[in-house]
């Protein structure tokens, strides 16, 4: 798939961990259709362990029994996803999401269920069995559900084909594949096999790779076989993680383009971690959230909302429905950091991108612990004829000849759209 | 156990791989009792996968079904070990070996069977189950039988106690524990727990740790909790491996002592790899075998015969029943390499050890590809009063004042026992 | 200095090594003024060892006597630069270069002459002496002229001020400082001190740092204290070095901007290494030279001609006076590699940059050993409305809707300037 | 030289740094001859910078002028060593030391004086000059006196021959060569050249290599070309350094033998660092000094006294004249650590060595911060017939059957000499 803009959507992980249910998915899909779809948000993604009947938090049950068919293909737990009864899988839920004008995605883990291997299930369209294709020393470091699949073995290709055939039959539009992005080079051939199976299944699907950090030296591979890949380990609502993203973004930014985007991970905004406490709310300040949306947008990271949509407050809704910011996310080109340095003892970062019509975007970030008033020479941006445009979060008109005066909150950001004079 | 001399015995691996059977064990035990026991050979060790009914070669069947009891404790496959029928385990076979005046050992793998985890068997003398103690991301890199056990978990100690209680009930005298010696520091606490369980089981057992290379910086730990530990990966009948052992031996030699020995691995002599071809014979030349026995003996490595004993030829019998060499193995003290250098363009190594009565042992090795005649100044050995003694392989009397003249075959060795003048 | 475009000029090293003389400099300056100045070429740089009377090749004479003043400041060797007689230094030569409408640069080495240290010369405007400021264990790995200067010592600042005061008095416009760019972090404080002295001397000078490879993690430092810094070790006329530059360029490209440019080193074109043989000519093929100029220009590396200008043939003159390519060098913005991958088994690279007026530059490189005919989907460039423009080396008009067809020689390149439709 | 016992003597460094004078040397030599010679102490060594007229402390004067002859060979500064007047060098002082029945040694630095290089002095017995043999990028990291010599250059061999010829003419018996032991592998060929020149000069000299840590993987090289080599960086009177020596000693101990000894460095006992303050005294406690002498002696390190001998108090005199301890130093064979472990929460180390007559030495160390009473099973020492002997520091008779009871002070030691029963 070669989409023009990075995927935007909702993912169940930040709020529901391994315990998401059909009700939750439907509720968030409905909210998105009604309130967010018009701004470009479209993917509804069911994250990890939908095949585990008793998942209850962000934790995994070691060696839990999983639901699967006779070919070792995982199926939704019917107690959590009632519409999956009678072997329907995610078909009915996907159909419902599609009926709302949205797209449907699921999380998978690299490999074949250990349970299939221990039961030695048949591989569909093959005379091989699960034990014959499992890669004996390839396991996930943090989850016990799967064994890796050995691409050298007869039956391996048929197994991967069989699962994507199933997902295609359900109407899946988006695959978030886990335990794979940072498992290079040792599992590179399994990743390539998986990508081929997905792209050959007859239904277009976005391929999203987790977890990070992906390897910078493999950038060309990710670009050619997937649509997005995580550039950090799990991102949560802590300033240290947001601060660290600037270093990652600087290195990865030139690899964003049509159909391939470095992924800075989900946006933990609004109500999150509800599976632990229904009163939980993001720890990010409003300024930090503005910084996050600004950085994610100018670098063109995929945007996946992590909070329960129906609980979004006015700030959060404004944050994710700022049309100018989302236009930057869609239209920025050649984005890159201009510099990152201390000004008056406070660390700042400056980013620039072209737009598609001869204008450009500029973002300024205060990464320090104090507010700042700084003046950025336009020559730093190689602009010699003055600027004329808008600050995108405030809507203020900006027109300057020699330098850009910026007032920033600690951990805050400003984003500008300028046209050439 | 604090034995005075390093264990000497026979192990089924080099000849029978994973496919050893009761007949083979009995036959070799009988031969040992009749022909070798008088020289100090005493352990009969059943190596890996005695619990797997269909093991046939040195290869392991991935995810094979294994024989175990209701507590997840592995049992001998009755089709291979008929006397184990009716839950007798290795009891009858151990009893037979004991009746011959020998000792009985078995191989185990660190951890708990994956099959027990997937069946979630009970832990004996505990209200915990297998899934609760398995360490989710701890597997053997080359065998799929087990999961590691997490020492932090309730039930872990009881599990390890339960298996050694079983082995003690069978009459086991020697445990070769695999997937553990080089798995430090990450599995160190499991190793310590295992050692405690073994030493607390009520029956003295030798604890032998595999595979190597063990970590030199952990020498004190090995010495305190085990009796022998492998200093290389699997040793086979290739000169390169024998050559490499000199570098290992040099570093490890000072760690040999009562009850704790760096282990240079089995001696692949006589008929080996018979499971593949009944005509297979060691690839080592006779000189190389003399070099091997000399090095193993002066450094006091355990001596475990790898070949089918009943097929030993006269050379091999002489090799392993040289009383003088075996006396060096028993009585060498403070063994160490004196130097390793080229003489006339041919690499040689010189070793020395004290004996327990004021004499000393000297070994000279030709590590090059040509025969050599060299003269070793006795000053190199810090001997200033001349030497008087015997070359142990030839029985020749040696008496010299200033230097030791040695004729060596390529890859060959000489060993001397001298008394102070 | 914050110039808008990366420096363009001539440097004596590639053709004359350490042996350049005043005649050579004047001849090349005159040629540049007459034939190249109108295209933007303006710097005339005297490279290493102008202070060594007997330098004869690219080699350095170990511990050679050097010409210096009473304050340990190096002076041109009068036998090689006659106009430097009577203490005039490079003043008369700089004046002549300025009279031609060009700018004048010199090479220096980090530190203070060892000869000054051994003579313990006074530091100008200080009561300290050379031995007191020399950093005792800081020497250049490949040249014996200097000791590093210890910024912690009294007199160190005065020494660096004194040399830049001298260079300013001569009328120097460009300093190529050697033994410094890759000597981080250990000599970072000396680099910062040197940069401050240069910027405080009262005359604007370009600061160019050698040798490479510079450290990517120090990009911000280079950008803030210098104008250009070498991203590789010495670049010469070998395909392997040109091929390797693509990997360097990909990583460094986002750090090019007004006043600061990653430096891919001199262009070894036309007659080079004449100091060894007056018939020497660049080993690069014409296609390789086109590739080089294309990459250097789209990434905006400084352009310093290495060959004897008066010997340039027609191809070389056309190569360095292609106005459209030089416009790309001046006006490219946000340059970056789009991808680098095999097409039909031949490695290619694709680069893009914006121009300053809403158009963009595209460069395509064949890095393989065979010619190729490829078709690049415009979607790879995120262009959805077709392209309209010119191929810059051939001048051909190009207009395409969906993909760009490119015929490339092995090691060759094409460069395009498009405007948005 | 293949001496039977490791060198014992006095070295000026610990007390006088770079500032030693002839008076000091004579005074200490006289004291040694009268009070220590009978115990085996015999070398008097003049440490670093005897060629620098103004050396005053342990610090070096950067780029100081040095005294040398027309061939760039360093000479004693006559203001410090008056008997060196009229080109006599160390001849008269060596003669005096010899007249006392002692041996005379000097410190040298690897290489050729920088001053010789800058003056481009002639190489004796060669038509080459200093600049031609200096290795341009080989300097000492902590002293500016010398350049390395490039063994590939004509004249290099002649230079090294010329300095040892000079030392031989003076009557030097011991060379402590600095800036060399840890400079491998990069300066290995210079070390080999130096060793050959020393061994070919016609006078036997001990070759001692500094500074440490030497490289364990080069043990064979040190053994073959030198007599002693430092196993740590400079050793001073701090417990942390003494504690650290146990880890070094454990690894190096098997490399001690006739003519080659791992060197644990000088013994900072009694009055030291007098160059700074005439009241300075070693910071080591008496127990720590006993531990030091015990470890150095059982491992057979060279013993070089660092304190001003004439100021030794009764404890210090007893410490260095304990005949039994010095007999262990002379006669220990095959020394090695038996174990190092916590007993009752206090770290202890146990060492053993054979003697030359069928007995053995045992040393026990308390490395913890509390006193201890421990019982060591004789089986740990592989002694099964009881022990019978003497504790060497107290002279107490010891006779035990099963275990050795030892009372130890914190940081203290006991040393035993046992004969086999």
UniProtKB/TrEMBL annotation, chains A, B, C, D:
GO biological process: carbohydrate metabolic process
Gene Ontology MF: a single term: hydrolase activity, hydrolyzing O-glycosyl compounds
InterPro entries, per the entry: Aldolase_TIM, GH, Glyco_hydro_27, Glyco_hydro_b, Melibiase_C
Keywords: Glycosidase, Hydrolase, Signal
UniProt cross-references to Gene3D superfamilies, sorted A to Z: Aldolase class I, Golgi alpha-mannosidase II
TM helices/strands, residue ranges: none
Domain Alpha galactosidase C-terminal: start-end pairs: 349-416
Domain of life of the source: Bacteria
Alphabetical list of PANTHER family matching this protein: ALPHA-GALACTOSIDASE, ALPHA-GALACTOSIDASE/ALPHA-N-ACETYLGALACTOSAMINIDASE
Family according to the record: Belongs to the glycosyl hydrolase 27 family.
Name of the protein: Glycoside hydrolase family protein
